[in-house]
Amino acid sequence: MVVADLHVHTTRSDGTLSLDEVPPAAKQAGVEVVAVTDHDRLQPTLDGPVTERDGVTLLHGIELRVETETQRLDLLGYGVDPTDELRAECERIQRNRRERGARIIERVEDRLSVSLPVEPRDGLGRPHIARAIAEASEYTFQSAFNELIGDDCPCYVPREVPSFERGCAVLSDACGLVGLAHPFRYPDTAAALSRCDSLNAVERWYPYGRAVDASLVDDAIERYDLVPTGGSDAHGETLGNTGLDTTAWNRVETALNV
């Protein structure tokens, strides 16, 4: 039984739930603990690394994309106590997100001769732009990604992300645990898992929607003495599709020491 969903997004990035809507959604799913892990953004209304709202434990988290020599990875920070350095890094990333979003919007509008109902802002991601494309044209959300704004598509603009080393440094100073997110979503899973020698956690449970060789993650957990985490990566209203049982959450809670 899932009691802790440690990978959830809100309207601070590309999720559909506001922070206030997370506890009711968690209760609906029977989930007792939720890590709010928005992309490259902190939650200013959470007043500590761990808080309780309406009977649900909220863990302040963040998902930070970083660059390695061969691929981009996502790091999950849990139990955030924001430092000035992390705040500054998040603001730099958001500034780039606004600039990148404006360029993608301009390219799409020029290509389709439409006006998109979306504006550059903090937290703007390609899912927001894809929804706007679907609203303003004959493209669907998915076809907008596949044909217009996905990687290597005509309206795609890459965004700047910190190096793996920089990401690890700012997260380690501010978080109780720092782990690798969804290892099987990267082109080279083995190379991604090898980076766990600099981390203290890894996302062991995740809804890939396909069969994966979880023994590779289990081997990394043993080799690098990692804390296994997990979550649904929820962007919608349903939480707890994947996550931790009581025993696994107790291990995370002990490691967080908050």
TrEMBL record:
PANTHER family: EXONUCLEASE, POLYMERASE_HISTIDINOL PHOSPHATASE N-TERMINAL DOMAIN-CONTAINING PROTEIN. InterPro entries: PHP_dom (IPR004013), PHP_domain (IPR052018), Pol/His_phosphatase_N (IPR003141), Pol/histidinol_Pase-like (IPR016195). Pfam families: PHP. One of its GO terms (molecular function) is 5'-3' DNA exonuclease activity. Gene3D superfamilies: 1.10.150.650, Metal-dependent hydrolases (3.20.20.140). It comes from Haloarcula vallismortis ATCC 29715. Residues 4-68 form the Polymerase/histidinol phosphatase N-terminal domain. This is Polymerase/histidinol phosphatase N-terminal domain-containing protein. SMART domains: POLIIIAc.
